[in-house]
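Wait, can you check?
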Amino acid sequence: MPKGFHASHTQTRSYTDSYQRLAAKSFKKLLDAKLGNYTFEGIKQSKEHCQFELIAAGEWPRAMLFTINNKKIPVPLQTDNRSASNKLYFVCPYCVKQRQYLYATKNSYTCRECLKIHYRCQSESKLDRLARRIRKERTQIWGYDWPDRYNLMECSMWWPKPKGLHNDKFDKAKTELYKLEQEYDHLSNIKLGKMFGI
């Protein structure tokens, strides 16, 4: 098995970023398209993964019928009429549940739950998750060009207010960010203490 982030840990989970995926929203135009054969790009698994027949499918408006390794895989398209956006979903061929994404396997398309794969963030420690959130908050306030947005050793308390941001909104965001940074420092100190026996 491949090693994980720490040399002493063995990776036992499979993650979504190891698979190529289809996004349902990319196929919304098919709801009004003519029935017939279509090809798309983006999946490098095989040519069969990128070719399908658009068919009428009874209870669903349309279905994409893939033929992969001489096996027919129907992927129905389902609209969600509960909101004004009329969002499009795939129906997983195996569990028959609405899904925003399907993942390409050797012989089919299936959803994350049927594949038993995880998002990588589900394996993050509390410290890693906190670090990612701090960087995200900093980016929302100061933008991608701010030089210290990734440096968690730097405190953002004294960083200047960006142009165009109201004082009240900036003060509120900065206060919330400062609390996250304090929590991160506290957890980091605990981790370092355990590592070095302090």
Residues 1-7 have pLDDT under 50 and may be disordered. The first helix runs from residue 112 to 115.
